[in-house]
Amino acid sequence: MAQQVDPIRRRLLFGTAAVSAGALLTACTSNDSGSSDNSAEQAPVADGKPGKPVTIGFAGPQADHGWLNAINVNARERAKTYKDVTLEITEGSNDTAAQIGQIETLINKKVDVLVILPADGKALTQVGLKAMRAGIPVINLDRVFNSPQAYRCWIGGDNYGMGLNAGHYIGEKLKDKPNARVIELAGMDTLELTKQRTQGFDDALKNYPNIKKVARQAAEFTVESGQAKMAALLQANKNFDALWNHDDDQGVGALRAIEQAGRDDFLMVGGAGALSAFQAIKADNSVLKATVLYPPTMAASAIDLARALGQGKGLGGMAEFEIPSSITLYSAVVDKANVAQYMATGFK
């Protein structure tokens, strides 16, 4: 998961992560007879009908986390839905030199479009620039390159929005409780995304003067770290009302620690959208009551965008002839009321 794109850049906000990119890319209906003569000419838009063949190169990091594996799955499955798309996908690596080599191989193969989720956006900026200079447009997925010249379009999640929505959800649940106390199980503090999630959470809590954050502990996005760090939080905090955990994978470990401690006196909100979290929310038999999405379906949307770009088409529902330069996905809150809607998007 990744740093957020610079907020001053123009962004297109999706209303919900569950809305498929296929729906976004369907053709617009023609203007009716009552439309003004001054209306914009209809742009050619991408749809599901076979068109110009497009070879898409896809390069991502090693799938050593449930969310990253779901990124690869979403890319492959979306590409299969198009008869005019050929997907060249790399093995994936967390070694920046190895990933750069994989991308250079795709450049040498002269793919039509590249979709890149860099292991390190800063370290891979130069290879993004190399592709763009070679005339191969780049869809930069999630972890943003340092230069906007290194990509044609960025699409990714909203880390600040995750924290903001988690904070507002907890705030609304506790707004009538005097002296409410919350704690936070964060991700890796070396990552900018973790800082953004915490900032969003803290900013949301400012709207609820009765709520105080009394503890914060960083973990490492793994089950093992989630269990160990949550156990420490529970030992140090005997009384609190809510927990926000940044990541559903480490949340599996956190729930183990909570169950082992026999605690059920608070509510928990997770992050990302793992299937295990959705199942626990639906069962409603643990402290986990909601999770805030960081949807891996963005990889499917990236394939849609790459196909549209390769065919020289825009997006249905928009007047412009070109795809936008930046798309930020919305961090929807999933709880028992709407979990059935999102279940199919959950990653393992």
UniProtKB/TrEMBL annotation:
SUPFAM superfamilies: Periplasmic binding protein-like I. Residues 30-50 are annotated as: Disordered. Residues 56-313 form the Periplasmic binding protein domain. Keywords: Signal. It comes from Streptomyces coerulescens. It is found in: Cell envelope. The keyword ATP-binding does not apply. This is Substrate-binding domain-containing protein. The keyword Signal applies. It comes from the Bacteria. Belongs to the bacterial solute-binding protein 2 family. Residues 30-41 have a biased composition (Polar residues). Its main location: other.
